[in-house]
Design brief:
Elements: E1 10-11, E2 14-15, H1 19-22, H2 44-50, H3 63-66
Antiparallel strand pairs: 1-2
Length: about 70
């Protein structure tokens, strides 16, 4: 397998391969898409680590509470 890298624009859902690579590319290729736009997906764990929820009178579990087997 050979890797070829180039930048292009997707037009109507079609990725056009530059002419200089068209002879090297057969009928079957593996496509990996790397976008230049950051995903708008929000990871809730990351958000909570950045801005934890403050709960009045919150008391974390003690070690004894965590390992209590009763």
């Amino acid at each position: 397998m050979e890797a070829i890298e180039f930048k292009t624009r997707i037009k109507n859902g079609i990725i056009q391969i530059p002419r200089k690579y068209s002879q090297k590319v057969g009928n079957t290729v593996k496509v990996i898409i790397l976008t230049e736009h950051k995903s708008k997906h929000v990871d809730m764990i990351d958000e909570l680590l950045k801005q934890p929820v403050k709960i009045p009178d919150f008391k974390p579990f003690s070690r004894a509470d965590i390992y209590d087997r009763s």
